[in-house]
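Data availability (excerpt). All sequences and predicted token strings are deposited with the supplementary files. A representative entry, N-carbamoyl-L-amino-acid hydrolase, is shown inline so that the format can be inspected without opening the archive.
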Amino acid sequence: MNTIHINPERLQRFLTEIAAYGATPDGGVTRLALSDEDRDARNRLRAWFEEAGCETKIDRMGNMFFVRPGKNRALRPVMTGSHCDSQPQGGRFDGILGIVGGLEAVCALNDAGATLERDLIVVNWTNEEGSRFTPGTTGSGVFAGKLDREAMYALKDRDGLTFGAELERIGYKGDEDFNPGPLHANFEYHIEQGPVLERRGMTIGVPKGIVCLRWFDVFIEGVPNHAGPTPMDERQDAIHAFARMASEIFAIGLDSDGVVATVGEVHPSPNSRNVIAGKVHFTIDVRGWDETETDRVCAEIERTVAEKARVTGTTAELRRTWEVERAPFHPRLVSLIRDTARELGLPALDMVSGASHDTVYINQSTPSAMIFVPSIGGRSHAEVEETSWTDCAAGADVLLNCLVKTCNDPEGAEYA
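Structure token line:
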């Protein structure tokens, strides 16, 4: 099949319309996993895909699989997609671009009257962000057999609502699992979420893999007391201990070889202006391509937390709550993306993904790769998140043509 192209105006319309679900006043979205906004966006996606002739399958984790049948349904299918949920006051491209890019690929194939050899599956993975229910990449992790379904059902949000009950409440708890069998290839199309492509003047990012990830929760315990009468040298101030830890964690990341360390959530207690804090709960996110260096940074952070607790007269419990190995992508699929971008006249850059994605789990059993497009200003997970419509269309064109090539691979042409 010759090179075909998506319809840029239709892609823009899809992206604009889906951004209305959970829209914020400053142009972003708050569409937390299993919220009403997530339900409404799911309903819209389902309607679009079914109008485009796809079959809909929903598994027991609420993962949505939209299947465009191929000529030979006995062949291993090709999958693409991403996630619909967002961060609080997040952006309108993160995750959803990969689903809508897959939808537009289906529509472009319909326009061309093309039936591919293999089934094409576009997926919406449940709870990738992990902002409401932790850990993230929940739906893809269970699908890949790496996370326990019942344990994920038991996850609670800050209001005590469980993942399983909320999944049922919004009507997306499927009755059975969807098993498409071994997959031929998997692609995830996504915004970069960093500044590299824009700074280098590149349209397409071709990551060789996803960095490893380590999440920690730290619980500091001091002594709550009155802010006025308590002398400075007699305080066991949990916020003071936290401040010293956070500063040192930043310095450790800064001094490392390509590892990033982030303090994200901070929850002091009692959180009153005239009370010395007795407790602080905070989180640490550590990521890097080199797992040995990443684990060295983690060990140094653990030592620092213990030392800063000791010198401030507090105690600190550090729990490792999530750990994911780095995910090197399949080299032939990485080359396919690079070559396809070149055929389309699009400048491409080899890189790594600093953000985690659902592909980190799917990659463990299915040949996988990702396609990036630039994030303006390198901003993501924020309302200002932006990618130009031209770049959105360019990345969707690369995705479409990679899907055509892999879906038309003959029987026996599997990726070893």
